[in-house]
Amino acid sequence: QVLLVESGGGLVQPGGSLRLSCAASGSIFSINSMGWYRQAPGKQREWVATVTSGGSTTYTDSVEGRFTISRDNAKNTVYLQMISLKPEDTAVYYCNVKGAYRGIGVLRDFSSWGQGTQVTVSS
């Protein structure tokens, strides 16, 4: 089993910055992609950014140039640095990690979600 724990959300004024963290723990054998999603009130969850095992990053258009995703492989942690925040960035942010974990005598794929952290951008 793989557990993800998120931190770093909060209330920030428009134009401000926040840094989200998501740490994975458990019987992890390998981690492939790590990503962030968000869900605003009354809307579906949407993809925000992904970083691959090789370090390649991709972003949804609305955050390109303002958000930076990164990972620390030694700590099994993914980060989302957010600057120039806008009210429309307000949402619950979820991390998602995909990889393989050690089962009993076998390796199994996993796709785990964090518990979510609230980001509110308001004056």
Tell me about this structure:
The chain has strands at residues 2-7, 10-12, 18-26, 28-39, 46-51, 57-59, 67-72, 77-82, 91-102, 107-113, 117-121. The chain is an all-beta fold and 123 residues long. It is elongated and about 55 Å long. Strands 2, 4, 5, 6, 9, 10 and 11 form a seven-stranded mixed beta sheet that branches. The chain is 0% helix and 61% strand. The chain starts with a strand and ends with a strand.
Strand-and-helix sequence, N→C? Answer: EEEEEEEEEEE
Evaluate the radius of gyration: 15 Å
The coarse overall form would be elongated
Please give the largest β-sheet. Answer: 7 strands, mixed
Termini separation comes to 40 Å
- The helix count comes to 0
> What share of the residues does DSSP label as strand, in percent?
over 45%
List segments where confidence is low: pLDDT < 50 over at least 5 consecutive residues.
none
Average pLDDT value? 96
Q: Helix coverage percent of residues?
A: under 10%
Overall strand count: 11
Tell me the structural class.
mainly beta
Topology, element by element:
Blueprint: E1 2-7, E2 10-12, E3 18-26, E4 28-39, E5 46-51, E6 57-59, E7 67-72, E8 77-82, E9 91-102, E10 107-113, E11 117-121
Parallel strand pairs: 2-11
Antiparallel strand pairs: 1-3, 3-8, 4-5, 4-9, 5-6, 7-8, 9-10, 9-11
Main attributes of the structure:
mainly beta, about 120 residues, four-stranded antiparallel β-sheet, 11 strands, elongated
Structure, briefly:
It contains no helices and eleven strands. The protein has 123 residues and is mainly β.
